[in-house]
Amino acid sequence: MVYKIRIILDAKDDIFRDVEIKEKQNLWNLHLGIKSAFSLMGDDLSVFNIIDKDGTIIKSVPLEDMSDDGEGEIMSDIYLSEAFEKVGDKVHFQYGFMDLWEFFCELLEVIDEKPAVNYPITVFRFGKMPMKAPIKAARKAAKNSSLPLMSDDFDEFDSNFTSNSFDDEDDDGFDDDEDDFKEDFFEGDDTDEV
User: b/e map of 31-64 (b: 16 or more CB within 10 Å)?
Assistant: First the structure.
């Protein structure tokens, strides 16, 4: 059997792809199908978050094992039939690190396998893929948030800095004309030139 999965880019505009993939393939194959369908470049880290009907993450499945003991499940360990148990099941997919692409995958239907088709295959495209990962409002707000500078914090500094003049700075008894060093430093040197 073949799973028809709709992959929706988490963006302001409607951008999605329908991908068909064999039921016996795994999340790593779906990962490759998503990369191909959306023309994602590079070999960035990615993760599938298997979610329940309320949107709560049940299990996170990374591309590579990040566990301390090296015993964690990775994408190639989880078959599609485990991630999508029935039509309507959803999975959240994240791709990238600095530029984070987020997708929602939903199992639309289960259909018969077609002969001579190399799965996964993109069967429908809608919307133009942006050049950069969309910035979500929450991430944008967090990225641009900074504590505003309070003018009160700098009032004391400003008053101290502007009230003092530098006229009294040279009152330490230093005379520019007085030379404390010997001008004839090498006068006592008896080395003969050869």
Answer: bebbbebbebeeebebbbbbbeeeeeeeeebbbe
CA gap 26, 75 in Å, rounded: 7
CA distance 125 to 31: 17
Best CA proximity match to 7, nearest among 79, 131, 94: 94
Q: How far apart are CA 118 and CA 159, in angstroms?
A: 74
Q: What is the pLDDT of residues 31-89, one digit of tens each?
A: 999 999 999 988 888 999 998 888 888 899 998 877 777 778 899 999 999 999 999 99
pTM: 0.67
- Find tokens 């302001």 and name the residue: 12
What is the rounded (10 degree) CA torsion for 71, 73, 74, 75?
160
- CA–CA distance, 102 with 34 (Å, rounded to integer): 11
